[in-house]
Amino acid sequence: MTGGPDVVSAIVASARAAIAAAKGSARDVVAAGCAAPGPLDHETGVVHEAPNIPGLRDFPLAERLREALAIDAVYVDRDTAMAAVAEAVTGAARGVADFVYVTISTGLGGAIVSGGRMLRGVTNTAGEIGHWPVGLEGPRCGCGSYGCAESFAAGRNLAEAYGVPDAAQVYAAAAARDATAEWLVTRAERALANLAIGLVNVLNPSLIVVGGSIAEHEPARTLDAMRRGIAERAFAVPRDAVSVVPAGLGRDVGMLGAAIAARERASGRGEWFL
Amino acid sequence: MTGGPDVVSAIVASARAAIAAAKGSARDVVAAGCAAPGPLDHETGVVHEAPNIPGLRDFPLAERLREALAIDAVYVDRDTAMAAVAEAVTGAARGVADFVYVTISTGLGGAIVSGGRMLRGVTNTAGEIGHWPVGLEGPRCGCGSYGCAESFAAGRNLAEAYGVPDAAQVYAAAAARDATAEWLVTRAERALANLAIGLVNVLNPSLIVVGGSIAEHEPARTLDAMRRGIAERAFAVPRDAVSVVPAGLGRDVGMLGAAIAARERASGRGEWFL
Hints:
2 copies of one chain form a homodimer. The first copy, chain A, has 11 helices and 10 strands. Chain A has helices spanning 4-21, 61-69, 79-90, 149-153, 155-162, 167-175, 179-203, 213-217, 223-233, 236-241, 253-266; strands at 32-36, 40-41, 46-49, 57-60, 74-78, 99-104, 108-114, 117-118, 207-211, 243-246. In chain A, helix 1 crosses helix 2 (61-69), helix 5 packs across helix 6 and helix 6 crosses helix 7.
């Protein structure tokens, strides 16, 4: 897919199929939620940049979906923010007021909940934790910078650096003691450790919830690397207060979060948490 | 100074002198504020660790000062949190709901205000931005870790790396084209750029207020390095929303913040912001 219209067409087709499968019509739908890559503005529904989808820039996704689906209330939010909502309401972070959601997948992203509120920032783009630079040097990142946690540790970046289509092949090669793969995976572990230490020292959460396909398949080289980094290098008090746990929900976490967020925002309860 | 009792004695002597100079007595003092190095817990007044003061560990500073001064209400908070309060109430961040205060001095620290609230975390130690690792390798830091922004860019660390008592000498040597000094200062600039980019991408503030003696004396190699890093490498929307500005208050910012924080907390208004 390239560009906004393709994305809208695909979502509309999928939404219409879901409505048909439920034997309903668009008029039965009170609100719809849509998880999208960030940075974006969940209040205006505009996606600013999507490093992993070429051509999607400053695109009014919520508005276009409202028009195309003829549904009045379409709520867009960053996929990772939606995932954090789902984990908070029904997953690994139930009842937790200070946590960070991290996804290690094609990209590396997350969302920050502090004192029971989603940390949004002044233009609603806060939480892009994959783009905190954790190395003074490092490979070029999809965001245009370099040294980002994502540039070292995300699936797409690992696969590209090794020259294969899928990061699973890099982990497999590392397990088979290929030196280059092992070097890349070890470097990714160190980047994830830096990220985890930074989250603990700077945000002092009680929980870091780690999801995404890479984390799910390679916990020993992702979650464990983060735990070791925290144990060895974070300040003692926030170190002792934090746990790093796997996400409680599977790959549909963003979709589940979108449904919960749409319900909350449609009922006017959104701002307490979202 | 080493250890808590020395610190308490020095503060008590200074407080008694100030009370005497005002021709008052401890009974006239409704509340006192004390800015201390972190991590600490501003609610209990316990200083957990102070990397730059040997021997100060898990020390109940507020309680000891209450006893020694016979003042009922003594409020302790991290020096950088106090400084952020002062900058927010009467300095460079007046009326700003999303900002980060950064001090580049002996150490490197800060405080985060998001959505009009001080970001505290689950054990009140959030905001230790000097200890977000920004390099995969790097010199050992006073906190026990390595690669922290502080380990590259704080005054004590620069001076130690160059083998002189004062960071000013490192900057002077760099200006005189000494290769080692230039390498150290350039590396510090890169660490500060990483820190600034991370703050922008992760927290999306409208303002980064930079104080501390190094920032004050070397703005071209601190604030400008942060501005350049943000301009070249941060996401466009949060980049365009942020300004990096010098602190509005001078070296007494922590003391001023302590007075304001004590007044606010004594009046019960503390939690809205502090």
